[in-house]
Give the backbone structure.
Amino acid sequence: MSDDPTRRLAPVVRIAPAKLNLTLAVGNRRRDGFHELHSVMVRLALADVLTLALAPGDVDTLHVDGHDAGAVAENLVLRSLAATRTAVGAGWTGSGSSGGGPTGPTAGAAPALAARLDKRVPVAAGLGGGSSDAAAALDAALEAWGAELDAHVRLDIAARLGSDVPFFLAGPAALVEGRGERVRPLPSISGPAAGVLLVTPAVALSTEAVFASFDVGARGADPAATRASSTHLAAELESGMTSARLVERAGVLASANDLLAAAATIEPGLRPFRRGLTRVLRRPIGQSGSGPTLWALYPSLEDAQEAHGMVEEALDDGSLSGPGDTRPVVVATTIETEGDG
Ligand code: C5P
């Protein structure tokens, strides 16, 4: 534990990036209710920003700007802070912002934190925003408290917070297995950063409901093909892959998501919307995670930005319309490469 009070007086700022599932193979439901996954995931430049500062009083607080993230009390940031404090334990001995003894929620516990979250990643969209915030909160809290936890303890906290959280403790690209807790970092994609266009229709899709629909038979024609594509992509990344090669692979990757049919069963408007996007962009359109965010890959950010303009234009003139009451959120971003994050 560090005893440098000046360091901890300054707020701790963390970038909490979104993720994209380039592949998502889903196995059978396990006895614990979760499904075995095989997914190649990458971090995106699109990110929330989390700021933590030591605070007086007994209670962690959270203020959210940007996208509506739902009830603050249920936000994963607060759950992450609580779980991390428990793991740090009653043995916290840092000096706190007051420079005095421990001032935390209970005597001897790590002190309360005030969190601010600038929510730029669309919520409940298949982009892992909430999970990334939770991983960032874990890391930032340790720094704010001047505390340390072993990597396996951090992984354990992350896995209990949610299936996507462990990925965010790993590198910019990883193969994710188990229910999400087995994360093998992969070499990141080389070359100029690939552009990504994200289109998130304004429909709330519950991950749990999408998996439940998968369980009752909303599945693609050939699950073995998804698994093969996922295994192949992981091997390609392992041996070094350029962004140009990844973009060439987009056609295969766009169908390598076993939750496509399940998401479209719950929200039937997704199928025609994906067809409409294919028509406008003339590129393979994939889905991230359990959706509803759809993606297209480009050689550069500039190309993705141009595609952004095409989608906005089609939404304006009515030749494309999304399911949901409000306009889809359209974002051009890039896949993170080593050194970005
Ligand atoms: O772990 P997380 O809270 O993100 O999971 C949300 C829901 O998604 C779970 O309750 C479960 O129904 C489903 N899920 C699953 N298998 C996984 C991950 C999530 O069935 N590997």
The CA atoms of residues 37 and 52 lie 33 Å apart. The chain has two domains: 5-185, 195-334. Residues 33-35, 37, 162-164, 179-180, 207-208, 211 surround cytidine-5'-monophosphate (CB under 6 Å). Residues 95-105 have pLDDT under 50 and may be disordered.
